[in-house]
C-alpha cells in the first residue's frame, strides 16, 4: 500500500542527479508531446571495419519462423509485434535486445530479415520498449557484434543503428543510474568504435570511468549485490576489453581501467560461486540468464586477463558483505551486507543474514530465487524476508520492499565481528517496529554448522520465525522436534514450535517447484545445529 511515509523513505536515498534528470525528462516529454517532436529514425553513417575475438556463446532464444523463447516462455508471431506485452515488460525487452541474432544456429540471412523487420516497423516501436535507452543499448551491441562477425556492410542497418545511437545519447539513464547507466556506457563505446564517432567515445569514456569506479566495490563486487547482474556486467566489461584490444583506434587509460576492473570482478565472482559453477541466488538472481562463471573465466583467458580459479579459497571477500565458507563437505554463502545500491535498490530483497548451503557439491538449503519482474504478489513474496533463510520478527520485513523495485526503510548492519570459524553480526531492521535488534552468529566447523539467533533486548511478547528453505531434491521430514534432511540431523534449541511447510522454489524465471521449508518459532534465542 502506498503511503507518503513510504514514498519519503524511498526517495530520500536518491541522488540529486537522479531527481534532476527524472524531472527534466518528464518536463521535456510533455513539451515534446505538445510540439509534435519526433526523432529522426535514419541518420547517414559511415562505419569502419572492426574485428572481435570470439566471445561467450549466446544461448538460443529464436526458434525459427517468428517464434521466440525468453524467460522460459515461448511465443510465435504471424507478424512480429515488437511492442507485444502479454508476457510482461521484461519479455518485451528481451525481444528487443536482439541477443538471438548471435546464437550459433541462426542463419545470417534470417538474422538480417529480423533486423529489417524491426527497422521497417520502427516508427511504431514504443519509446518505453524497443526505443528505450536500455533496450537500444543492448540491441546496439548485439547488432554491431553480428555485423562484425559476418563482415556485413548494410546501409539500411547502419543508418538505422546510427539514428538509434543518437536517441540513446539524448536519453542516457541518469534518472536510474546503476546497471542502466553502465549499459548505456558500454553500448556507446561499441557505437563509438563502429562509427568512428568521437562524441560517442567521449561520453562512453566519461560514463565508464565514473560508474565502474563507483559501482565496483573494493573486493570486486558490483554494488547492486546480485551475483547474476555481476556476471552480466562482467561479461560486458570483457566485451569492451575485446573491442579495444582488437581494434587500434583509442589507446588511452580507459582500456587499462577496464582490464583492471575485469580482474577484480573475476576475483569476486570466482570467490562467491560454488564449486559446481552455480551462483548463490541472492537478491535478484536466477539461473539461465547471465554467462556462467566458467564461461567468464574462459573468455578472460582469451583476452589474457588474469584471474583466480573457480571457487578459490584465497580471495578476500570484504566490502560486498557476502562471505563464502568452504569446507571439505560443504560450501556456505552468507549475506551480512547492507542494502546495495542505496540510491537504486531495484534488485534488492529483504534478506539480511540469509545463506545458502551446498553439501557434497549439491544444493541443500537454498534461496527461494527470482521468477518474475512483474509487479505482482509473486514478486513481493520473493523479495520478502520470509522467503529467505533468516529470521522474521512479528511477520514484518526487515527492509520495506514495495512496488516491485522499491525499498523504503531498510535494515542496516550495525555490528560485524569475524573470526576464523565464526561470523557474528547485528542488524537494526526491526528497531522501528519492535524496538529490537536481530543478532545472528554463524559457527562453521568441519562437520557441524551452528546458527545462533538472538533478539536484543529479549522479549516474550513478539514471536519470531526462522526459516530454512530446502532444495526440491532434498528429502525432508520431522522427527521428535528436529528435522531430518537427506539423513542429516538439524536440531533447534530454544524453539517453541518446529513445522514443515511448502514453498515455491524459483531457480529460473517462470519456473516454480514445490519444496519444503522448515519454520521454527521462538521468542528470544534460537540455536540451530546442522550435523553434516
Explain how this protein is built.
This protein has 532 residues and is an alpha+beta fold. 34% of the residues lie in helices and 22% in strands. It contains 13 helices and 21 strands. An eight-stranded antiparallel β-sheet has the order 11-12-13-14-21-18-17-16, with no helix packed on it. The relative contact order is 0.08. The mean pLDDT is 95.
Layout of strands and helices, then pairs:
Layout: H1 4-11, H2 16-35, E1 62-64, E2 67-70, E3 73-76, H3 89-97, H4 108-120, H5 133-150, H6 155-169, H7 178-195, H8 198-215, H9 227-246, H10 253-272, H11 293-302, E4 322-326, E5 330-335, E6 355-359, E7 362-365, H12 377-383, E8 391-393, E9 401-402, E10 406-407, E11 413-419, E12 422-427, H13 431-434, E13 437-444, E14 448-456, E15 464-469, E16 476-479, E17 482-485, E18 488-493, E19 497-508, E20 511-522, E21 525-531
Antiparallel strand pairs: 1-2, 2-3, 4-5, 5-6, 6-7, 8-15, 9-10, 11-12, 12-13, 13-14, 14-21, 15-20, 16-17, 17-18, 18-21, 19-20
Helix pairs in contact: 3-5, 5-6, 5-7, 6-7, 7-8, 7-9, 8-10, 9-10, 9-11, 10-11
Question: Briefly, what is this?
Answer:
With 532 residues, the chain is α+β, with helices and mostly antiparallel strands.
Gyration radius (Cα, Å) is 24 Å
- Structural class designation: alpha+beta
What is the distance, rounded to the nearest whole angstrom, between the alpha carbons of the first and last residues? 43 Å
Backbone shape: globular
Number of helices: 13
As a percent range, the share of helical residues equals: 25-40%
Report the sheet with the most strands, covering strand number, pairing sense and barrel closure: 8 strands, antiparallel
Q: Kindly report the average pLDDT value.
A: 95
Beta strand %: 15-25%
Number of strands: 21
Biggest sheet: strand arrangement: 11-12-13-14-21-18-17-16
* Unreliable residue runs: none
What oligomeric arrangement do these chains adopt?
single chain
